[in-house]
Design goal:
Structural class: alpha/beta
Strand order of the largest sheet: 1-2-6-3-5-4
Order of helices and strands: HHHHHHHHHHHEEHHEHEHEEH
CATH superfamily of the largest domain: OmpA-like domain
Largest sheet: 6 strands, mixed
Strand content: 5-15%
CATH architecture of the largest domain: 2-Layer Sandwich
CATH topology of the largest domain: 60s Ribosomal Protein L30, Chain: A
Helix content: 55-70%
Shape: elongated
Number of domains: 3
Number of strands: 6
Length: about 450
């Protein structure tokens, strides 16, 4: 600036000109730029939650380094930047160490759970082996029984062939009646197995047993007697085995423990239950039998049926662990067409009275209409409806009524009471592991 301009310019303008003519701002140190890139990286962003204090210290050092650069102290700015970079690397290392510890803890927890599961499976192995051994022994016994039965059928066929025609017709009629009764028993046993949960535990075995029973029931109506008997025997065997399998899954000890529980129930009902029910031990549970007139029950419950049902209802509803199947069959050979439907309707009526619900709430075997849901019912009655089922068998065979009742319009009411099977899902899964089958079909393989 020449002397003439200096004389003309005011003092403030001179000061600004001197400042502009001074040294320029020094370039940023490379260490400071590297630090900025490090702090902006995804690695640091991921590490920040696990090493927040160390990352905060690095950012504080970055701020000091920025200030030193602005003041022109490049050496201090570079030194602070390098120190901040060390803090960033430390933060990343601490975060990775924390993540490694977390993953190690997860792995140890997974390993501990796996070891606990393995120990549980090992603890159950002996129980499962016993159950499978019982099943094989049961099948061996059934096979021997089937062979004996086949020989008996052949012997009966030879004997029938030597009978006079009139006697042979009577013999064949009685043979068919017995086959019909056995098929009805198989159906009741099958329904009890279903109530115990066979459809959920063994769906394929349940399907096979159902088809065998349907085939047997059809055969006793249409097939020659020498053909129907093996079909009925097969249906009985499959229904019995399905029930046996469910009892083998009972977590309280299997079939032996279940039998002890049922025997205790029989003793209780015999000691504390008034006639007219006949109380007995049945392979399916406690069996209570009562003969009555079907027409009277359709109108109202006569005595002594009304008193018997009232007393039974008080005992059964008090035990929420007890399931119930109400079976009705006709004792009148002149029951005629629609006999099965009438006995099913009577069974539903009796079951509804026993459970304290409307008949529409009772599940009846063979009825295509499902019962109404439990909505709107008190919880105790909804539970009663859920643990009772009705089945009508029509006319099966010519049995004399009890208590001197005439045959005309007579029915036999049979009520089966049996404890629930408390299934342990781990047992089903472990059985599946032992047999190599899906859990729901663990023991359906021969």
């Amino acid at each position: 600036m020449n002397a003439r301009l200096r004389r003309l310019a005011p003092p403030a303008l001179l000061a600004a000109a001197v400042a502009l003519a001074g040294c320029p701002t020094p370039p940023r140190p490379q260490e400071l730029d590297d630090l900025s890139l490090m702090l902006q990286s995804d690695v640091v962003a991921q590490a920040a939650p696990r090493a927040a204090d160390t990352v905060a210290e690095a950012r504080a050092l970055q701020a000091e380094a920025e200030g030193a650069w602005e003041d022109g102290d490049l050496e201090r700015s570079a030194r602070l930047s390098r120190l901040a970079q060390v803090q960033v690397r430390l933060a990343v290392a601490l975060a990775r160490q924390d993540l490694a510890r977390e993953r190690q803890a997860e792995a140890e927890a997974t390993l501990a759970a796996a070891e606990a599961t393995y120990r549980e499976i090992e603890d159950r192995r002996a129980v499962l082996e016993q159950r499978l051994a019982r099943l094989w022994a049961y099948r061996d016994a059934r096979e021997a029984l089937a062979q004996d039965r086949a020989r008996a059928v052949e012997e009966e066929a030879l004997r029938a062939a030597r009978l006079p025609e009139a006697e042979r017709a009577t013999w064949e009629r009685n043979w068919r009646a017995q086959a019909h009764a056995d098929a009805a028993d198989a159906r009741r046993t099958f329904e009890i197995a279903r109530m115990l949960g066979a459809g959920e535990a063994y769906p394929e075995a349940e399907r096979m047993a159902r088809e065998a029973i349907e085939t047997a029931l059809e055969a006793v109506e249409t097939s020659p007697w020498r053909i129907e008997r093996p079909l009925v025997d097969a249906a009985q065997a499959q229904a019995d085995e399905l029930r046996f399998r469910m009892l083998s899954l009972d977590e309280d000890g299997g079939p032996e423990a279940m039998r002890a529980r049922v025997e205790a129930l029989v003793a209780e009902y015999r000691a504390g239950f008034d006639p007219p029910f006949h109380v007995g031990l049945d392979p399916r549970g406690v069996a209570l039998t009562l003969d009555a007139k079907g027409a009277e029950i359709e109108v109202a419950f006569p005595e002594p049926v009304a008193t018997a049902l009232r007393d039974l209802r008080a005992k059964w509803t008090a035990d929420g662990d007890l399931l119930c199947l109400v079976s009705v069959r006709s004792l009148d050979s002149a029951c005629g067409e629609g006999c099965a439907a009438r006995t099913a309707s009577l069974a539903r009526t009796l079951a509804a009275e026993l459970a304290g619900v409307e008949p529409a709430r009772v599940l009846t075997v063979g009825d295509p209409d499902r019962p109404a849901a439990g909505a709107g019912m008190p919880s105790d009655r909804a539970d009663n409806a859920a643990r009772i089922r009705a089945v009508g068998l029509g006319f099966t065979k010519d049995d004399p009524p009890l208590e001197g009742l005439s045959r005309t319009g007579a029915i036999r009411i049979e009520i089966f009471l049996f404890p629930r099977v408390r299934l342990d899902s781990a047992d089903v899964a472990a059985t599946a592991s032992a047999t190599g089958l899906p859990a729901t079909e663990a023991t359906t393989a021969p």
